[in-house]
């Protein structure tokens, strides 16, 4: 009886496995250059701000997937040459790009957004990925804002 039950479970397991993974291989993910972003000149701790990001969707095979959002802190030199502890937020637009379809050219501006709630006062720098230079280093649009108590 145990052998029969084991055989039944093994058969059910093998029969339920779909080895055809074509459905998952018809797209890739790509980082899309940011055209612009809308950042307030100043903010207040604890308030929520909607940050909008514009990018160009080259064809209808590109579909928004997510924003890659990274937090860090850097010592950035101010106008007087002093190092200031600065909150840095680096953002990149990620699209799903369908590869096995015929694509229609669009070159349309697409807007996405995220909500941002600052938790500490001080200077913030938002960096939005726009591409890479000839050495493969990231190029960014930078927006500075001040968060007040």
How are the SSEs ordered, and which strands pair?
Blueprint: H1 2-16, E1 27-32, E2 34-38, E3 42-44, E4 49-59, E5 62-77, E6 83-98, E7 105-116, E8 122-132, E9 138-148
Report the radius of gyration as a whole number of Å: 23 Å
> What assembly state would you assign to the polypeptide chains in this entry?
single chain
Strand count, sense and barrel status of the largest sheet are: 6 strands, mixed
Indicate the CATH architecture: Sandwich
CATH topology: Immunoglobulin-like
* SSE class: mainly beta
Name the beta content range: over 45%
User: Please, what is the average pLDDT?
Assistant: 88
CATH class: Mainly Beta
What is the share of helical residues?
A: 10-25%
Unreliable stretches? 1-18
Number of domains: 1
Beta-strand segment tally: 9
Helical element count? 1
SSE pattern? HEEEEEEEEE
Terminal residue distance: 71 Å
Describe this structure in words.
This protein is mostly beta strands. The protein has one domain (25-148): Immunoglobulin-like, CATH 2.60.40. It has one helix at residues 2-16, and strands at 27-32, 34-38, 42-44, 49-59, 62-77, 83-98, 105-116, 122-132, 138-148. The strands form two sheets. Strands 1, 3, 5, 6, 8 and 9 form a six-stranded mixed β-sheet that branches. Strand 5 and strand 6 form a beta hairpin. The termini are far apart.
